[in-house]
Amino acid sequence: MATSKPTQNEHDHELDGEEENVQPDKKEKKKKQDSEAAADLEKGTDYAEEKEISTESIQNAMSLVNQKTSEERSKKASRERELAKVVIRKEDVELIMTELEVTKLVAERTLREHQGDVVKALISLTN
Fold this sequence. Notes:
elongated; mainly alpha; 0% strand
């Protein structure tokens, strides 16, 4: 009983058979990954399409923003009118300017915010 060694051609033929078995597995995995990736991509595009913004929503948001802005402007203008009514003395403005080295506008504004009270204005500026 003599066992013969396989020749090089027989050995190569055996390896080719093994490679053929491995290749279909890789191809199947690749196809599966491709189909999963395509499904994920499709989900992403579907979501974006469902989230379309209507012009009515945009108009409502813009009107709300405009309304808030006009309310804030109105409050600010009202506050400025109130401050303009406050009587302040020129000597008080000069005192604050020289003692704290601030501009005339800052000194006047602070005095007006504290109804002309120099002590409160000075305390406010030093804190």
